[in-house]
Amino acid sequence: MRRFNYRLLARLTGILLLVMAAAMLAPLAASLYYADGALWPLLLAAATLATIGLLLRNGIGRKATYELHERESFWVTSLVWIAVPLGGALPYLLSGTASFTNAAFESFSGFTTTGSSIIPDPSAIPQSILLWRAITQWIGGLGLILFVVAILKRLNRGALRLYSAEFSGTQQRKLHPHISTSVSRMWQIYTLLTIVLTVLLILAGNGVLDSVCLALSTVSTGGFMTTPLGMSGYSHLTLALLTLFMFLSGINLALLYNLFTFKWRQLKASQEFWVYAAVFLLAAGSSAAAFGVMGNGWPRSIGYSLFHIASTISTCGFYTTPPPAWPFWVSVATFLLILSGAMAGSTGGGIKLRRLMTLFIYLRNYLTRMLHPDVVFTVKIDRKVVPGEYVNKIFGFVFLYICFIIGGAFLLTLCGSGIAEAFCLAAANISNLGPSPLINSLGASLDYALMPTAAKWVLIALMLAGRLEIFALLAIVSPSYWRLRR
Amino acid sequence: MRNPTEWKALLRFLGIILTAEGALMALCLLPAIHFSDGTLWRIAASSAATLATGCGLWHTFRRHTRINDRRMSYLLVTLLWLTLTLFATLPFLATATTPSFTAAWFEAMSGVTSCGATVFSDVGGLPASVLFWRSMTQWFGGFGVVLLVLALTPRLGINKYSLYTAEASGADNTGKTTVRTTVTVRRTLAVYLSLTVIFIILLMLSGMHLWDAVNLTFTNISSGGFSPYSDSIASLTHTQQYLLAAQMLLSGVNFTLLFLLCTFRWRQVRHKVDQVGFYLATCLIASAFVVLSVHSHTGCGWSDALRLGTVQTLSALSTTGSVIDDYTQWWTPATFLLLMLSICGGMAGSTSGGLKAMRVLILMRNARSILRSRLHPNAVDPVRLNGRPVSGHIINNVMVIFIVFGATLMLGTMALMLGGVNATEAIGASAGCLTGYGPGLGASGGFGSYAHFSAPALWVCSLLMLLGRLECMTVIILFLPRFWRR
Amino acid sequence: MNIIIAGDGEVGVHLAKSLTELDHNITVVDPHSELLKRLESETDLLTITGDSTSPQVLEEAGVAHCDLFLSVLHHESINLVTCILAKKLHAKRTVARITNAELLAPKHREMFRDLGVDEMVCPERIAAKEITNLLNNSAATEFFDFSGGLLTMYVVRLEENSPVVGRSVPEATADYPDLQARVVALLRGGETIIPHSDTVFRAGDLAYIIGRANQLENINRVVGKQAVSIRNIMIAGGGRIGRYAAMTLQDRMRITLIEENRRRAEELSAQLDSPLIIHGDATDIELLKDEGLQNADAFIGVTDSSETNVLTCLHAKRLGVGRTIALVENTGFIDISQDIGIDTIINKKLITASYIARFIVKGDAVSSKWLSGTNAEVIELIVGKHAPATRKPLGELAIPHGATVGGIIRGRETILPSRDLQLQQGDKVVVFTLPKAMADMAKLFD
User: I need a labelling partner for A111 at 20 to 30 A (CA). Which of A31, B183, B221, C28 fits?
Assistant: First the structure.
């Protein structure tokens, strides 16, 4: 029995820290250009990260092998997801933007693409830090391990395990027999979307830095915003663009790739996509009707509903000033969408529609079986059979998801939240949505900065659990994990 | 479904049940005479009307005994409960104690489903006969009227086990101890009756008046929770409160198990040892937490904290709903925990509501097993209950019930909010009605009542009670289009 | 014609016997010498013992001079290989029996033609098609389209209340002048009657009627039957026939399919979308009732056991199911099954044989069909350039005994035969004929 492969952990973390140091060049440049005074903290952070990264990669991790046990892959994945965001917190800390807990909260919220922020007025902090915030989301959007997998071509079983540990599975077909090719295709489409949105936003008359930040936040479904008032200050064209791209970000990346390579049939055959589109339109339509009936003016009702529902279903988390009268139905729709999330394999969070579809079909079968006890059933999605054990895993996942929400809400009440508020906070953060007008409508404050320190760490744990789809995180606390020797 | 003889048989069944209900209603004449509260004729009229309808139906359709269609038996169970509720409203309406039919329906439903939520803000002002009727409905409702009828009429011609499962759907391996369902039911009834008598005597020995002893035993052994006093059980002596707590504890235990224990068949107990262990462990751990929080946050002494904490915990876990102290004023996490306990519920095959210990146990073990299978993909690790592997089919069915239960809870909360109830109270009311706990959070929790709820909200609550009592599926299946097809 | 049949299973034997009757030279190839011995002693043909995938055996059977090579063994892959080999050994035309209907897709067909398999026959698929046709035309017991549906042959049973019972054929024709159909044969007590002017209709006769495609309602009126609209059907048996039938019918009808084998049931539920797949024994009548047999409009028994099929159909009939169709493998059972009240009997062998027979009648026959219950055949012939039939009007032609002309298709037009009709080259003639008259009929129109 060999020991835990800590070298690989060190190597992966090292690489990611180096990547972050490199990524920090962008905020550095911005800082030089805007002369916002964050130059030195950023330089220091970049240097620190680079040094630690180099040490980890070439020191401990020099002789790393990609030999991994199934169990270790969860461990490595989870630890990478803890170590890297901690490193990413340095710029906030060094620039004096936030205290340690706050900086960690902001960084974790960024990397998990949640978008909950402890910065009450983003326009008051240096632009370069804003850019860094957006970049963390973009890196986290597709997943840190996926990032590494895309960089390294030297892959084997171990990497495959890491990949599956991070993407704990919705039974998706890979885009290409080679995992690295599949992954790099996903990155291509991801980057392409980002660039297109940036250009469009600039053309729509927004500032360059603003456009870049928004594009990074939108495509990764992160949802950090650059003004204290959310998106209310932006033009209608900008909001329309963001709505479109939020909707696109909720689509499975593999499917998007097919879309861009004009393989329409794949899109047509995907039941999940049609469910996604139908749910989106239904929710947006009913919300618009609810707003309109309450006398908010139809154009505004429709525009706001589309934006709000796109933001919620893709778990992006942008918000703008709602129309004055808030119909209760919108809260209901919002809460349901927070739980459901978008398509499996997208950058969004939540339980994912594919899983819910499976559950729904199983439920229908169950009811039919009550009438016909001898009936034989299979669960089929996209005309393919979902095997029974897989259905069981989905059930398990949903059960754990609900347990995490309940457990998280319980811990939040320990920290002083009300019960309803605690549920909403837990749900919004585990599904990586972040801020939502729903929480406001309950009378709670969106200002995470005012929350007690303990509550922040609870939320951090929830964000991570949601991002890693629970299993990876739970695996490391499972007692059977520790029985390495057997 | 189109077969008229089956419908006639169904009507005959309704007749039998109504006759039984009418007879029990006639018992309310005793307190009416004894306390001469002026309701004698009104109660007599209600009872006569019920008896007349019941006997009429029974006599008219006496020749139609068989129900062969499985769908009819599902329909029958739901209709039985609805009819029972409908006629149970008569005493309230006849004495004009409720302001509206909606309120009467709510109170009756809360009674027959042994829920315990009440629309009377001042119970003390009610006539004795009505108070007794409330207790009576809970007593026979808690046991399960369908079972009661089965036990009393030996030759019904219907497939009894299908009814038995229709009422307790999904609880696959809980019920039968003997080959014949009738025998099982009779044993259960014997246990129920003897427990009732024993506790009435014990309560009287502790110095309670017969009237109170009967009322409180009827409502607590059935895990109902109505009380003849506005402050529920708060003003009783400590011994009496502990005696009631014992009733609650027992009301959450499987009746078959109690029967085995009473007849000293220790061997067979091991088939249920896991559930018992889980139930008792939950009691202990939850009580400990609640007692601690009561001690530290309300400033009462250890002995008081112990009494308040344990009694309220047992009341929640067995979904009885008797209130010893205004728990909504306790520390939020303690209130939260009580809410979760009521959702968890007692053992399957008891009078308590909620998800039931066995299901929660299977859910947890399954989650653990899935986790393990991710760590050791090749391990064969079936979920075990009482040392025996549980088939995947049963696990998935439990999962379905869990998901449906959760979804109903959530949708119920939202429907209540649409009906104008605030968020926290809606969560409490939804859980309280669905699980059969009764009191919720906020103004409807603690010693409060549902008097201030709007009519639509009361209807939603009534529906939730019915869903909870029939474990959702039996009612939901009526909404399946296939159910009504030829 | 020189015909080689590989395989002496039931289909092979049936084909061999009926083709011998039609005066063809039949050679049967099979590895089982005992079965072959029996066949040879009963029928006038040549048998060769050996594996049909061996070129040597094929050559021995005279594959080089063979006009038609039929491979009807049980295994699809052997049939395909046999056909490929036979083609390479200069057989003129090859036909393989297959079990997987997927191969029949146009793109695959082309590929198999290139390989040397000219035609493929999937008995299960044909049987399933038969079932769907029957359900679409629910009053007829059998049903067959010619020339893409321009002419249709209906097989209907005359009910007691039919107005034509007790009347002769010319009287009946005079009663319904607007009826665009013609009775070509009657089946009475196992005997096929070609109606003359003095033939009288009796209740219980099975009438073979050829007419325009839209005549079903009129015919129903005449024979005293009401068409039932079919909504709920129950299929017992999830073999290939049941599966194919369910696949085609699932969009229009509510199907309950009962299958005994759990694994097969699971496969079915994976393949089919809307049908309700019940795992259970079709002979368990309680189960069938539980699943709503009494509410079904049609019951189809296609399990592997003919006895089960017949008995369950009878039970369904007793419970008031309008249409019952049973798969009966034993040809000896067919008559009696129909006598005791089952509406339609499906027999894979007859169906396959009639389907294959289309390759036998030389080039001109477009499609043909053997009818269950009678040995008669309905074929579609094209009138040749110098055919004897073009010289005289129809009434004066020497139509052989045991055959009759049912209808003529000229271009897109359908003509019902009359005495003074002059046939032209290129006309398609639908002919009802007993085997003995087949050759003469073919000569008349060639």
Answer: A31
Mutate to test the interface with B, among A362, A370, A378, A391 (most CBs of B within 10 A): A370
* ipTM score: 0.89
pLDDT in tens, A309-366: 999 999 888 888 888 888 888 888 888 898 888 888 888 888 989 899 999 999 988 8
DSSP code for A56? I
**Residues C52 and C117 both lie in one domain:** yes
Check whether residue C172 and residue C245 sit in a common domain: no
C340 plus C392 within the same structural domain: no
Nearest CB to C295; choose among B68, B70, B486:
B486
The answer on pLDDT for B412 being more than 90 is yes
Distance of CA C345 to the CA centre of its chain: 11
C101 and C164, same domain (yes or no): no
Best to test chain A binding among C278, C284, C288 (most A CBs inside 10 Å): C278
C188 and C249 inside one domain:
no
| Residue C147 sits in the same domain as residue C204 | yes
pTM: 0.84
Where among C87, C121, C155 does a domain terminate? Answer: C121
Specify the pairing of strand C181-188 against strand C206-212: antiparallel
Instruction: Name the most confidently modeled range: A385-389, B143-147, C200-204, C245-249.
Output: C245-249
> Lowest-pLDDT range, A86-90, B444-448, C83-87, C260-264?
B444-448
Query: Based on the domain organization, do C143 and C182 belong to the same domain?
Result: yes
Q: Is the Cβ of B393 closer than 8 Å to some Cβ of chain C?
A: no
Which of the listed residues C223, C251, C274 is the one where a domain comes to its end? C223
Residues C185, C433: Cα–Cα separation, whole Å: 9
Within 413-432 of B, beta carbons closer than 8 Å to A belong to: 414, 417-418, 423-424, 426-428
pLDDT tens digits, residue range B151-195? Answer: 554 444 444 444 555 444 333 344 444 445 667 777 778 888 999
How is residue C418 written in tokens?
A: 């009359």
The pLDDT of A222-239, averaged and rounded, is 85
Distance from CA of B139 to the nearest CA of C (A): 36
Cross-chain Cβ contact B485/C254 below 8 Å: yes
Interface membership of A71 toward B (CB under 8 Å)? yes
Can you give the CATH number for the domain in which C336 is found?
3.40.50.720
C51 and C117, same domain (yes or no): yes
Q: Is residue C264 part of a domain?
A: yes
Q: What is the dihedral of CA C316, C318, C321, C325, to 10 degrees?
A: 50
In sequence order, what are the beta bridge partners of C414?
A: C409
Q: What separation in angstroms does the CA of A201 have from each of A81, A129, A212, A218, A303? A: 31, 20, 8, 11, 18
Q: Is residue C366 part of a domain?
A: no
Which structural domain, as residue segments, surrounds residue C206? Answer: 139-223
Q: How far, in Å, CA of A110 to CA of A106, rounded? A: 6
Total count of domains within chain C: 4
Q: How far is CA C144 from CA C129, C155, C209, C406, in A?
A: 11, 9, 10, 13
Contact B486 C292 (CB under 8 A): yes
Residue C365 has pLDDT above 60, yes or no: no
CATH number at residue C210: 3.30.70.1450
Residue C11 inside a domain? The answer is: yes
Q: Please give the pLDDT value at position A407.
A: 94
A-interface mutation test, from C247, C269, C293, most A Cβ less than 10 A away: C269
Chain C residue with minimum CA distance to A381: C270
Residue A169 has pLDDT above 80, yes or no: no
Within 8 A by CB and 6+ apart from B224, the residues are B111, B114, B115, B116, B135, B138, B139, B141, B142, B218, B320, B321, B438
